[in-house]
């Protein structure tokens, strides 16, 4: 019978698909070379402290509609405001990740032994912004009576997507490469997101409601400090820390 | 055989529902809300608790359940065809449809495991369209209208197959629509749906004043829409001008114009609504409907090329005649206007 017609029909469809679906993978970035260790004298270390301020009026937080999961509605209670901008009346800005970006090359530091905990609580990530060391355990916990997936979308580290269908489940993950920032999201609950700044030293922090940060125990030297905010981007400043000195820094982000 | 045809139509409708569900998965960003495959959060697919189908899981797991149903229905179709269908090439198409739906399921699973890489996701979207077109084709091939050659006599068949403009337009239009869908899928899976935020202009101009990958793919989709619309209008105009008496051609041709107009409207609305989930998903479903309508029309135009017209059915299966051959004596030529049940 008319096999030729039938096969021509099928082959045409397949060829069209093949032609339309070309593409290739981008090469993975190379891992940085390991730095040689350099000792720090505890008697000479200094600090960098300061505050993060917001200039202008931050967009008002919006109420998250959690209706797609009744358990989230119950668990969240009144805590349903977006966290894109968390600023006080005085202008101090929370959820800013501050870290030493440059100036520590060639030094090594004892590994972090304690895990940092990322909790899913009330169908929100707690904390919303946090930091971790390269190789440090990030313990992800489901404290909700509903299921979550934890989907990290780094660019320098390996992407992962975990399922935690039951309350109390825990998973430990580590990051092998410094990366500021690694986003987390829950694809079940589209409003849930968090960020972790992964650095290869212990000099980082996240501002609280008072907008303050404190990078303590730095060896004397010249540094570049970066402040990162999820909506406002990054700012950097150069600072010199003298022996046993505390350098003051302040960052001001603007909106509007 | 009539029930086989009706079953195939039901499968075609289920496939459209599946594509719509897939559109909802991407429109809601739920593609990775179930991180494992083939299980769902460690559960066997059909034992996953309904109470846990919340948020994105409702869309993703729902898509998997519909896909499984379509897969099982396709197994049924392939077996049914193998049992009662006399035309070997139609039986083969049934197995090809089964292979396609299995491949599609695996592709969907791999897409999840590898975190929705663009190439796999676009391939998943493309294969979905091909599978849908194949099922619709089988619905046409098993229809009484097709088996009775739509009541055409030999001179009519010759006249249709000698209409070069009709053949060319009927062939090019579904290919163009498929390519347009693939461009749309690429735009969708690269997040370029709002790369050009205004409509009908692009950044206030006919041609975008700035370019990047997202803008280029988005603009290509708009140009593709213009090409497809032009082809559809030309094809329908030609049919209405030259083949007004052939309802098996005029009906899908008119439907094609209606669907393409709806699709353009939905495309514009998708941009203007900033990718409203419902509008965006309807745009995906309507694109699929447009493609298979064009395929159906093309098949009816090329009906004579598929043989088994005017007494040339192949019956050499399992050593003899099948019930189907008795039910549809293909030598019968119906009077014009008596086309049996058409898809």
Describe the protein in words:
The complex is a heterodimer of chains A (256) and B (343). Chain A is mostly beta strands and 256 residues long. Chain A is built from 2 helices and 16 strands. The radius of gyration of chain A is 23 Å and the shape is globular. Chain B is built from 11 helices and no strands. The chains are: A mainly beta (256), B mainly alpha (343). The A-B interface holds A 1-3, 5-6, 9-10, 12-14, 16-17, 20-23, 68-72, 146-147, 149, 151, 153, 159, 161-163, 165, 186-190 and B 28-36, 41-43, 52, 54-58, 60, 87-89, 92-93, 96, 115, 118-119, 122-123, 126-127, 130, 133-134, 137, 175, 178-179, 182-183, 302, 305-308, 312-314.
Question: In a few lines, what is going on in this structure?
Answer:
The complex is a heterodimer of chains A (256) and B (343). By secondary structure, chain A is mainly beta. Chain A has helices at 3-20, 70-76; strands at 46-55, 97-102, 116-121, 124-126, 129-133, 138-142, 148-152, 160-164, 170-173, 179-185, 193-199, 204-206, 212-218, 221-229, 233-241, 246-254.
């Amino acid at each position: 019978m008319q096999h030729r017609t039938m096969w021509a029909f099928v082959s045409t469809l397949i060829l069209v698909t093949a032609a339309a679906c070309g593409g290739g993978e981008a090469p993975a970035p190379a891992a940085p070379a390991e730095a040689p260790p350099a000792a720090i004298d505890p008697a000479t270390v200094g600090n960098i402290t300061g505050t993060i301020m917001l200039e202008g009026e931050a967009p008002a937080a919006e109420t998250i509609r959690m209706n797609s999961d009744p358990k989230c509605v119950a668990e969240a209670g009144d805590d349903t405001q977006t966290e894109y901008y968390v600023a006080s009346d005085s202008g101090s800005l929370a959820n800013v990740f501050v870290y030493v970006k440059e100036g520590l090359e060639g030094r090594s530091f004892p590994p972090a032994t304690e895990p940092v905990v990322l909790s899913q609580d009330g169908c929100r990530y707690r904390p919303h912004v946090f930091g971790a060391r390269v190789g440090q355990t990030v313990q992800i916990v489901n404290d909700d009576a509903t299921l979550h997936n934890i989907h990290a979308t780094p660019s320098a580290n390996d992407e992962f997507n975990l399922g935690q269908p039951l309350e109390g489940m825990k998973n430990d993950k580590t990051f092998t490469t410094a990366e500021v920032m690694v986003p987390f999201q829950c694809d079940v609950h589209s409003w849930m997101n968090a960020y972790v700044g992964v650095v290869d030293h212990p000099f980082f922090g996240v501002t609280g409601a008072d907008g303050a940060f404190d990078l303590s125990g730095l060896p004397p030297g010249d540094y570049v400090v970066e402040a990162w905010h999820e909506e406002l981007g990054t700012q950097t400043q150069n600072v010199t820390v003298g022996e046993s000195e505390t350098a003051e820094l302040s960052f001001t982000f603007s909106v509007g | 055989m009539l029930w086989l045809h009706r079953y195939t139509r039901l499968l075609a409708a289920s496939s459209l529902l599946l594509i719509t569900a897939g559109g909802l998965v991407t429109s809601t960003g739920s593609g990775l809300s179930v991180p494992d495959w083939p299980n769902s959060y460690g559960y066997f697919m059909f034992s996953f608790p309904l109470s846990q189908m919340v948020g994105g899981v409702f869309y993703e797991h729902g898509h998997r359940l519909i896909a499984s149903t379509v897969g099982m229905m396709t197994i049924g179709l392939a077996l049914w065809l193998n049992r009662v269908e006399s035309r070997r090439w139609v039986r083969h198409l049934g197995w090809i449809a089964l292979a396609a739906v299995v491949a599609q399921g695996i592709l969907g699973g791999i897409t999840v495991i590898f975190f929705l890489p663009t190439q796999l996701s676009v391939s998943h979207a493309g294969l979905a369209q091909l599978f849908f077109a194949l099922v619709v084709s089988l619905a046409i091939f098993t229809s009484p209208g097709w088996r009775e050659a739509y009541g055409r006599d030999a001179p009519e068949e010759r006249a249709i197959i000698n209409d070069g403009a009709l053949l060319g337009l009927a062939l090019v239009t579904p290919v163009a629509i498929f390519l347009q869908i693939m461009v749309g899928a690429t735009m969708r899976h690269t997040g370029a749906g709002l790369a050009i935020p205004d409509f009908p202009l692009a950044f206030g101009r006919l041609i975008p004043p700035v370019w990047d990958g997202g803008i280029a793919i988005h603009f290509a989709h708009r140009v593709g829409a213009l090409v497809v619309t032009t082809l559809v209008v030309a094809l329908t105009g030609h049919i209405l001008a030259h083949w007004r008496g052939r309802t098996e051609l005029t009906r899908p041709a008119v439907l094609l114009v209606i669907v393409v107009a709806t699709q353009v409207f939905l495309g514009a609305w998708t941009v203007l609504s900033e990718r409203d989930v419902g509008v965006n998903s309807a745009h995906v479903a309507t694109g699929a409907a447009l493609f298979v309508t064009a395929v159906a029309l093309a098949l009816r135009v090329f009906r004579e090329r598929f043989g088994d017209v005017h007494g040339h059915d192949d019956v050499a299966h399992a050593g003899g005649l099948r019930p189907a051959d008795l039910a549809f004596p293909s030598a019968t030529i119906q009077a014009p206007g008596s086309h049996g049940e058409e898809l």
